[in-house]
Design a protein that fits this description.
- It is built from one helix and ten strands; from the N terminus they run ββββββαββββ.
- By secondary structure, it is mainly beta.
- The protein has one domain (9-136): Factor Xa Inhibitor, CATH 4.10.410.
- The strands form two sheets. Strands 1, 2, 3, 6, 7, 8, 9 and 10 form an eight-stranded antiparallel β-sheet that branches. Strands 4-5 form a two-stranded antiparallel sheet.
- β7 and β8 (101-112) form a beta hairpin.
- The chain is elongated.
- The protein starts with 8 loop residues before the first strand and ends with a strand.
- 14% of the residues are buried.
Length: 139
């Protein structure tokens, strides 16, 4: 049965920490992976082109959040800003309502998105993965 994205949560922690904290206010998330490169192996005697799988090229993982009070240390913006300042990659976990989750490590970049009349303020979190993205199926 299909499931809705409602209830999907993003968690993060510094490498030295043992417990993940939820980044509250996530509004959307990116594709969790990408197609691997193809390496052409066609020869002059081949009747059709042939390929082998190349290496994966994970794009930046992108998330949009509500921009909340930056004076609160537990706001998603404050947490992400602290992670962005770290030299070591942080650990991330994107968890779906059924318990399935993706986990990876990466370095953050954040910025406040453009504003307009009668709209909520948002910020963008980009994570450059430094490890493979691993899917962990629900038990």
């Amino acid at each position: 049965m299909a499931q809705a994205t409602n209830g999907t949560k993003l968690f993060a922690k510094k490498k030295a920490e043992t417990t993940y904290g939820e980044l509250i206010g996530m509004k959307d998330f990116t594709d969790m992976g990408a197609k691997a490169d193809r390496i052409e192996t066609t020869t002059l005697s081949s009747p059709v082109k042939s390929y082998i799988r190349g290496i994966d090229d994970t794009p930046e993982l992108e998330f949009t959040f509500n921009f909340e009070d930056t004076t609160v240390a537990t706001s998603a913006y404050s947490i992400c800003k602290a992670l962005e300042a770290e030299t070591n990659p942080a650990d991330f976990k994107l968890m779906f309502p059924d318990g399935t989750f993706y986990s990876w490590s990466g370095q953050c970049s954040i910025f406040v998105k453009a504003g307009k009349v009668n709209a909520v303020m948002e910020f963008h979190l980009g994570v450059t993965a430094t490890t493979p993205i691993v899917i962990n199926d629900a038990a």
